[in-house]
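Why do we care about 3D structure at all? Because function follows from shape, and shape follows, mostly, from sequence. That is the central idea of this module. The next example makes it concrete: a single protein chain, its amino acid sequence, and then its structure expressed as tokens.
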Amino acid sequence: MKTTGFFIAILFCLAASSISGQMRGNLASSVGVSGGYVEDGYGIMGTFNFHPNRFQYFQISVLAAIAEDKGAQNIPYNIFTIQPGLYYRVFMAPRRKNFSLFLGGGGLFGYEVINNGSNELPTGALINGKSQFIYGLYLGAEMEIGLSNDFSLLVKANEYYHVNSDVGNFYPYVGVGLRYFLF
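And the structure:
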């Protein structure tokens, strides 16, 4: 019974937000997912965008990175971050309205896990770095190519600055994915 009530409440909230978005004009929301390269490994990013107009959007994204620092010892690490930010459209193709370029940035916070939380490597060597909470800033660029009214191809590039990371202060992400416009 509680589960049914929960789903009814969720449906009610979604319907109310859709109706209020239609009443206030050109508001839109979209979700996206992309996968790609991070330093020394792979990453996947999920995004939610709120578009108050056609020229900007507020974005909250989640990045999960799986990598391995290759040096004298191979040390695996994972980074999980949440990034709120703001993007502005800086270019739209004049004849083909389905191509846009956005630039933006924002803050980030998250957690990095070094060597699955262990300070000792299998060889017995000790790691100076530790798993910890991280924070910082990022700059990003997104290229969007409209595929239909609801879907677009997304090419994303972010450069992160982690203020207190033991893995490294600068951390890139480049990925390709899809964006779906909810309303």
